[in-house]
Amino acid sequence: MMRGESSVLDHIEHWLRYRQWAENLPGMQVAVWRDGELRRSLAIGHADLAAQTPLTTKHRFRVASHSKTMTAVAVLQLWERDRLGLDDTVTRWIPELGHVASAHEVNVRHLLTHRGGLLRDGRDADYWQFMKSFPDDAQLIDMAAEAFGVTEVDSQYKYSNIGYGLLGLIVARAAGQPYPDYVRTHIADRLGLHDTGADVGPGHVVGNLATGYGGAHLTRRRHRVAQDVHTQALAAATGFYSTAEDLVRIAAALFSDDSRLLGPEARALLVTSQLPMRDPLSDIVSYGYGVRTLEVHGRVLYGHGGNYPGHTSQTLWDPAEGLAVSVLVNAIDVAAVQICKGVMALLSGQDAEGPENGDLHRFGGHFASIWNVLDLAVLDGVLTMIWPGQSNPLDGAIKLTQIGPETFAFPRTGGSFGTGELVEFVFDEHENVRHIRVAGTTYQPVAATTHDFRPPVPAWG
């Protein structure tokens, strides 16, 4: 790894620490995989606030709908072995639904791609709030009997956890073993993953789970949310636990030239668009076989996210750069996908073999005034001003031009902030930045400690 990429990763780490502090998040786990290796793994904040337990890279999170990708892999593995067909109807494998007319029309492919027209979570979904237990196999089948027919089969994208729960039953029946056992043997064990599994609860005791926390949307204090809840028949839709490191390894195995889990044809099916869609809030443009495709500023990304009471998560893969990023947060009210896309944006185009620009790195850092916080980082060989409060840190980024040994200039066109003005650096006797003047305003350096971002206490404090 060249210094240029290392410097960007250092900047990303500080940006993440700032986001964790600014959004009052309990903890955050982030992993970056590139070109066949783990480039950075971070744990920021706390696994448990009351006990003040520092979060580590080995703490496990409930990664919720990442489970759908695992289930799609399991189905496609069985398809490769001719143990089931993608056009098999639901009733072929679950004859208990034979009295439901629509169940004879919906097939495995429809369930994988959310085109079966089923209810999302059933008519009583308060198991999500732990007001009742998650359904077992028999209860899921009863719920499914009332879940078909919300939309016409194969007519539109209709997200359904019930549908993926049925896929879990199909995997178990086609494989001849319980779903959690199958995915452990054929996914986790094949990749040598020791922190990933299909469910927790009775018979699936899992240690080292990060404590989950509710949102601050009703009170300013976060409340603890239990994480050892058994998702039972919905494990295939939402039960998985994992770490950021394991998730980027899974992404690399699925989206690169790696046949440990799936052959080339099955890997292609994962990202094969079924029905075009456009979700302006999430940049999702299609859903394949357990995998979402996003278009973000002209880049195509693959992956999935997950929302579980107390935990949120997102993993993305950039096929053009062989880059995977996974972000896990132990709070319910944060968009992990936005943080993940922010990390992707900062890493995009940062070629590990590119120029080091060693002379410019001395100007990089994190600075604050009474007005705001700004970052300076070398991106694509250019000193760039970044606003870390943005969900995409490159929104509004400004590329600076060096005009003197310790002086840079803003562009002369566009924008109302600093156009044509100067960014001037003042160094101390140890060649550390004492302060900078940005269009006449003094900004002080900001330091990040091991676990927390600390705002500056400059002269006006």
TrEMBL record:
It holds the Pfam family Beta-lactamase. SUPFAM superfamilies: beta-lactamase/transpeptidase-like (SSF56601). Residues 20-330 form the Beta-lactamase-related domain. It comes from the Bacteria. This is Beta-lactamase-related domain-containing protein.
